Amino acid sequence: MELDEEGYLYDVSQWTPEVASHLAQELTIELTDAHWEILYLLRDFYRQYQLSPAMRPLVKAVSQKLGKDKGRSIYLMQLFPGSPAKVAALLAGLPKPENCL
């Protein structure tokens, strides 16, 4: 598994759940079913649009697929502290979202 200088996979096809678990350990995040739900949603989003969503589109996609309770910034920040769009994309094996510093 090759990572860029920020820890993102160079090759999206190298992602496996084991890779996600390893990357989560590096970030001291214990992956729960709630995390996996978002990671798989992100991977589906990427397959459909060929990009990693920034925060607003991520919140909208989660809200549409998983309901308004989960489609909130505060919920995503609890799961993926710091920058949810960046952290979730990294764990899902996707490129860094554009417009994320």
Keywords:
single chain, 101 residues, mainly alpha, Arc Repressor Mutant, subunit A, 5 helices, 0% strand, globular
Topology:
Elements: H1 17-26, H2 33-49, H3 55-66, H4 73-79, H5 84-91
Helix pairs in contact: 2-3
Brief rundown of the structure:
The protein is 53% helix and 0% strand. The chain has 101 residues and is an all-alpha fold. The chain has one domain: Arc Repressor Mutant, subunit A, CATH 1.10.10.370.
Outline the structure in words:
By secondary structure, the protein is an all-alpha fold. The chain is 53% helix and 0% strand. The protein has one domain (12-91): Arc Repressor Mutant, subunit A. The chain has helices at residues 17-26, 33-49, 55-66, 73-79, 84-91. The two termini are 24 Å apart. The model has no long low-confidence stretch (mean pLDDT 95).
CA gyration radius, whole angstroms? 12 Å
Q: Remind me, CATH topology? A: Arc Repressor Mutant, subunit A
CATH superfamily: DsrC protein, C-terminal domain
**How many domains make up the 3D coordinates?**
1
Helix content: 40-55%
Helix-strand makeup class: mainly alpha
Give the SSE order as H and E letters: HHHHH
Amino- and carboxy-terminal Cα gap: 24 Å
The CATH architecture comes to Orthogonal Bundle
Q: Which geometry do the CA atoms define?
A: globular
Number of strands: 0
Count the DSSP helices: 5
